[in-house]
Every structure is written in structure tokens, then in C-alpha cells.
Amino acid sequence: MLAKMPLSVSELREAMREGRAVDTTRLNRILAIDAQRGLLEVQAATPWQSIAAEMRPGDPRAAVRTTMPTVGESIARNAAGPDGTPAVNHVASLTIVMPDGDFRRVSRHREPELFALAVGGQGLFGTMYSITLHIPSLARAVEKQGEPQVVKLQAEVRGQQTLDVLVPPESMDAFVKETDERCSDWRVPLLGVSARNTQREEETYLRWAQREYCELRLAIAPPRGLGGAVRTAQLRRQLIDAAIAAGGSFPIACTPDATREQTEVCYPQIKSFLAEKRRFDPHERVVNAWYLHQRNLLLRRDEVDVRWSH
User: Fold this and answer.
1) How far apart are CA 129 and CA 133, in angstroms?
2) DSSP 116-132
3) CATH number of the CATH domain containing 64
4) 292 lies in a domain?
5) Which pairing describes strands 91-97 and 103-107: parallel, antiparallel, or unpaired?
6) What 3-state DSSP class applies to 150?
7) The CATH number of the domain where 168 resides is what?
8) Which of 119, 144, 169 is the last residue of a domain?
9) Are residues 163 and 220 in contact, defined by beta-carbon separation less than 8 angstroms?
10) Is the pLDDT of residue 304 over 70?
């Protein structure tokens, strides 16, 4: 099978200007290693495992546990790495092809506003071409990586669902107990719970890591039928409410169950974030399912201009 040809910056810029789809999986190369400065530049679709193998050839610890498979996906979500540290902590700079085809290199010192929006920005401010990472911080994350604590309550079943929430570490035990009770009340089996600690950060605009959290993944078994689906949806929103009541939140990248009220409580900056997206991309050339969901969720009916005709 022939390897895919690399995707050049000029080809990507032209595709963005023309609104043409392009295969971004071709952005999968390691571009440069600056050992003296401790920097590594990779294209956005580069797998973390490829980086680990390059940096630690033959080392069994190169099998790094990551939440997202590629660097670009991790940066778009500001996902926590193997040691629970949000991805922004490893980023020195980004190169982004903007919706109008403009090519920009951004960092904490060069266009810091766009840097804060793009990291954790769900891929809405253009297409990431490359990311320059700090090698020392990556090495520390690998050294400190830990396996999530997994509690199996029941055997896995076909069609099970997961729900991710964030709770303060000191509230974890009480929250898990309450979750088990709520699942029992709704007759929706709780199959298992996995937990890992995540660290706070203060650099990104749409930050989920507002403090140290225990990230919980709840595995539940929705009953069959329409009634079971309704009960499960109600339960999931109740569990988000319970996390909020415990001083926690939910990861906005992967929890579409949250209501508008829950979203605004946990992410009061969400409306201004969407306004910034429209400022940088007024014609909405770069959209995805996450953006459409949040835009529709947060559009208040009383903000719609209504005109009556006779």
C-alpha cells in the first residue's frame, strides 16, 4: 500500500481559501527536533506513539497512554496527558491556516489571544498545520504517567454508554456513592467507574481545568426501548447536576448531554468564546458538530428578531 503524500502548507492554504475539503491525515510528519533548545515540531495529525518511538527508540515506556491519538486532537481539546497535565503546558507555539487561508504562527508571546483561543478551541479557528512542543515537559509527563483507577461493578454489556464528569478529588467517593444510588433509582445499571487526577491551567480561553479535578468516566447500561432512552437521558443530566453540586464540572469537549443552564454555569465564557469564533471566522467556513451543537444550544429564542406579517 502506497504511503500518502505529505500535505504542504500551500496546498492547505489554497484548500482553505476555496472551501475545499482536504485530507488532513496527511499532516503526520515529525518536522524538526531542536535538542539544544528542547523543542520538537510535528504536524497536527502526528500520532503520539510515533513521537514516543522517535524520542525513546527501543524503550518499552514508549507505549504512552494518551486520551487522544494525535497531537492536533489533543491540542484542539486541551486534553489531559498521561500525567493529568492539560496539553497547553507542553505547547511552545502553533502554526495555523486560518479560515481565509492566512498562515500564522502563534504563541504565548506572538498573538497570545489567538493562542489562548486555539488551544482547547475545538478546531474552530482554522486548521492546525504544526505544533512545537517542549521536550522536557513531555518527558516529565511520561515519567509521571499513571493508569486510571478502574472500579468494575458489573460485567460490560453490549451498547453501554459512558459519561465524563469532573469532581474535586475530595468529593470523589461521595459522588460515586451518589451516582450508584441515582442509577439504582432510575433502574439504569452502573457498570463501572474509572478515575484519574487532572491538573489545573490558566492559559486557555475555554478552559475546563479550572482547578485540580478527578476526571470520572461512568459506564452505564441504558435499558432498551424509548422509555429506557428517556430515563437514561434524564439520569445523565442529573449526574452532571450532581457533579456541579459537588463543586465540579464536565469536560465540554465530549459531554453533549449538558443543558444550556449547566453549560453556562460551568463555562460562563462560552458565549464570548463563540463570539470570538465568529470574529475570526465571520463566514463560518470552519464548523463541526461541536460548534453547531453549542451554537444551537445557546441561541435564546428571546434573542431572535420576530416580525409579524398580515
Assistant:
1) 13
2) HHHTTSTT-SSEEEEEE
3) 3.30.465.10
4) no
5) antiparallel
6) strand
7) 3.30.70.2520
8) 144
9) yes
10) no
* pLDDT digits 0-9 by tens, 35-78: 999 999 999 999 998 888 887 776 655 555 667 899 999 999 99
Cell of 183: 442509577
| Residues in Cβ contact with 94 at an 8 Å cutoff, skipping those fewer than 6 apart | 75, 105, 106, 107, 115, 118, 119, 128, 130, 131, 132
Bridge-partner residues for 166, per DSSP? 215, 249
197 vs 47: CA distance, rounded Å: 23
- The answer to whether 121 touches 205, Cβ cutoff 8 Å, is yes
- CA distances in angstroms from 208 to 176, 200, 250, 254, 267, listed in the order given: 21, 8, 8, 11, 8
C-alpha 264/C-alpha 259 separation (Å) is 9
Give me 5's grid cell.
503524500
Helix spans in the chain (H): 9-18, 48-55, 71-77, 112-118, 135-144, 172-185, 225-245, 260-266, 270-280, 289-298
Q: What are the distances in angstroms from CA 273 to CA 59, 113, 150, 267, 299?
A: 41, 11, 34, 10, 14
Q: How far apart are the C-alpha atoms of 258 and 237, rounded to whole Å? A: 6
- Domain boundaries, position 257: 149-266
- In three-state secondary structure terms, 23 is coil
Which pLDDT tens digit goes with each residue over 220-252? 988 888 888 899 999 999 999 999 999 999 999
pTM, rounded to two decimals: 0.89
CB 253 within 8 A of CB 80: no
